Amino acid sequence: MPPGAQSMATLGARLPAGQFANLQTFRVAARHASFALAAQELALTPSAVSHRIARLESSLGLRLFQRLTRQVRLTADGERIFAALQIGWDSLQAALAGGDALAGGITVHARPSIAQCWLVPRLAGFAAQYPDVSIDLRVGNESVDFRAGQVDLTLHYGDGHFPGLAARKLMDEWLAPVCSQQYAREHGLFDAPQHLSGATVLHDTLAWPACAPDAEWRLWLEGRAPGLNLPARSLRFDRADLCAQAAIHHAGVAMGRRQLVQPWIASGQLVLPFGGFDLPSPQAYYLVHSGRAALPARVQALLDWLVGQAI
């Protein structure tokens, strides 16, 4: 018997049949980490969701959620049961579709900048090719805990070191300062990096995990303008796309990542005052997932499709 089927059979042996609706309510609430969002998906009230989960907890003799002031969080028992449910649900979806189905939902987590600038503009292509697969995209700078099974795949910008997880490199990145043409003219920046001293620099303070707030700029100065110091004037953001947007609106000079800002370069909204993208970033984009089991067919299809988009 497959591991997922065994987990579901064991769970079923402990639950009366009337609890299966509550089990599905728990699965949805755990996936969203929210009773309110689960209520929306299931067309219930948040109170009804809470009562169903309370009845399930009573039947199992386990506490599945920590109820916090504004959120809920899975307990260790909740994580274990949710992971078993997800495996069983994937097996059921495949069986109903007659095999290893390219159907069902995929939860993807991505850093905000790569989601906004690269991933979202491409999702229509995936939806056209795989109309029976739905994607739940979540963005944030926080790290992802795969143990709870709430995320299938994450698009990460980092150094490729992901202990205990499986990762596939998606694409490399290159760096160069960018700003609006107006800003470059007003500050005499074209081919004159020494004039940065009179400019405002825009920082992505969370460019990659555990980096210094000015890490990208210092990297560029060391590689392309040694001897220059960072200007005193700066604006700081926690997203590279916000830096680029600020640069478009003449706020200063941002450190551009080619994969993110190329459309704005092509449209003329941003220019490269000191030349092209000739400095490789030490970070790259990776598709990361739990290495505990083989990926469901639909997740593997998305992973392969994204790699194809990066070629």
Helices and strands, with pairings:
Elements: H1 3-14, H2 20-32, H3 35-42, H4 46-60, E1 65-67, E2 72-74, H5 76-96, E3 104-110, H6 112-119, H7 123-129, E4 133-139, E5 153-158, E6 165-178, H8 181-186, E7 201-204, H9 215-224, E8 234-237, H10 240-248, E9 253-257, H11 258-267, E10 279-290, H12 297-309
Parallel strand pairs: 3-4, 3-5, 7-8, 7-9
Antiparallel strand pairs: 1-2, 5-10, 6-9, 6-10
Radius of gyration: 24 Å
Sketch the topology as an H/E string, one letter per element. HHHHEEHEHHEEEHEHEHEHEH
Structural classification: alpha/beta
Shape: elongated
Largest sheet: 8 strands, mixed
Helical percent range? 40-55%
Number of strands: 10
Please report the distance between the alpha carbons of the first and last residues. Answer: 40 Å
Q: Helix count, per DSSP?
A: 12
Question: What is the arithmetic mean of pLDDT?
Answer: 88
**Low-pLDDT segments:** 1-10
Report the sheet-strand fraction. Answer: 15-25%
Widest sheet: strand order? 4-3-5-10-6-9-7-8
Describe, in plain words, how this protein is organized in 3D:
There is one protein chain. With 311 residues, this protein is of the alpha/beta class. Helices cover 42% and strands 21% of the residues. The protein has helices at 3-14, 20-32, 35-42, 46-60, 76-96, 112-119, 123-129, 181-186, 215-224, 240-248, 258-267, 297-309, and strands at 65-67, 72-74, 104-110, 133-139, 153-158, 165-178, 201-204, 234-237, 253-257, 279-290. Strands 4-3-5-10-6-9-7-8 form an 8-stranded mixed β-sheet. A hairpin with a 4-residue loop joins strand 1 and strand 2. Helix 1 (3-14) packs across helix 5, helix 2 crosses helix 3 and helix 2 (20-32) crosses helix 5 (76-96). The longest helix is centred in the N-terminal third of the chain and has 21 residues, at 76-96. The protein is elongated, with a radius of gyration of 24 Å. Residues 1-10 have low confidence and may be disordered.
